[in-house]
Amino acid sequence: MKKIKFLHFFIPHSETHQKAHLLSWHALVIYMLLFMFLRVGIDLVDLYKPGVLGINSNITAEKVIQETNLERQKNGLTPLTENQSLAHAAYLKAQNMFEENYWAHFSPSGKDPWKFISNTGYKFSYAGENLARNFYSSSDVINAWMASASHRENILNPNYQDIGIAVVDGVLNGQTTTLVVQMFGKSSLGGNKISVNPADFTRTQPILIAGVHNFVADAKIDPFAVTKTLGTLFILAVAMLFILDFLILKKRGVFRVSSHHLAHLSFLAVAAASVILTHAGEIL
Amino acid sequence: MMKKIKTLNLNLNWVLFLTAPLFIAVLFIFRFSPHIEFCVLIFTALIYLAVAILHHLKDKTLTLEIIIEYVLIATLALIILQGLIL
Q1: What are the φ/ψ torsions at residue A45 (nearest 5 degrees)?
Q2: Of residues A176 and A230, which shows the higher confidence score?
């Protein structure tokens, strides 16, 4: 008897043919609350334990430059030359984003991208900036930029001759984040104007965050991966229960006035696809 | 007349099933734009609810419990996706 009761969590009731308990509206409310608590929990950890959550990536400036030039060559353009001044400007921009805690081309204090480039002594006739954060790999970053018309335009702009990349780890909005700043330029004077020590802007250098003053360590938990895995599993589990419900009712040969299985399964397929296809990274 | 209504019912039942690949294709195109993905899922959820309500109205099987079930499933999917847009 107990075994049958336990089975009713997964299959329709053997006498009343009611839906499995795990498909009841009570259970659906519990699932919703679980995901709401998960989101609130992530926000609370971000607030009180900054740096614990985040994404650990393996992006390198060299690989980003290599893939950028590969895309340019595919489109019949000349490859860009790595420029130390632009790389330093990109590093200063990333550092400023962590210090002022913002995710934008313009800082809250009014600094624009061109200011960072000019401050390094690079005189430009053309300049551009692409930003990315929370990507796992260099290829993901380039794929995301190439999928966006404005970022793609920057990468494939024939006016640019130089490129500078900074890949910097820090804590942004409470989460360990890897920022990728890509600066493009065409020098109006033809070359580097200042000498910059590359050791000043390697990603291994810890960044001090205003108001927090934590050294950047690897994030312990990836909230994106946790939410994505749980979300996918829940959607698939609910879909499986609906399939089971449909098959058992069909086998029993009973008709039950209830919601439509096909509609649920179609919507859950779209929902699962949206969760699976979502990327952690953001571009700007 | 009866034949026409039956045909319409059949179409409603299959509307989401047949359009789901289209929505998935749109999601794939905008896979690097989480906010657009979220809008696509909201749109899908609205169609899902509209089709479901129309279907049950025609079947004369529309009850509060059935509506709640559709609304909860749509909301659950949206909450899960919203949690991924950090």
Answers
A1: -65, -40
A2: A230
Q: Does B25 touch chain A (CB under 8 A)?
A: no
Q: Tens of pLDDT along A192-216?
A: 444 444 444 444 343 333 333 334 5
Q: What is the least distance, in Å, from the CA of A244 to any CA of chain B? A: 17
Across the strands, what pairs with A180? A132, A167
Contacts of A150 (CB under 8 A, 6+ apart): none
Mutate to test the interface with A, among B18, B23, B32, B82 (most CBs of A within 10 A): B32
Specify the amino acid at residue A157. Answer: N
Contact between A98 and A207 (Cβ < 8 Å): yes
Kindly state the tokens that stand for A27. Answer: 């259970």
Question: What is the model's pLDDT at position A26?
Answer: 92
Contacts of A160 by beta carbon, 8 Å cutoff, 6+ apart: A80, A126, A128, A154, A184, A185, A186
Q: What angle (nearest 5°) sits at the alpha carbon of residue A173, between those of residues A29 and A211? A: 135
| Cβ <8 Å between A25 and B80 | no
Q: Across-strand partners of A72? A: none
Residue ranges of alpha helices (H) inside A60-125 are 61-74, 84-100, 113-119
pLDDT grade for A217, boundaries at 50, 70 and 90: low
Closest CA to A32 of A279, A262, A218, A231: A231
Residues 6+ apart with CB under 8 A from B79: A32, A35, A36, A39
Nearest to A191 by CA among A138, A124, A276: A124
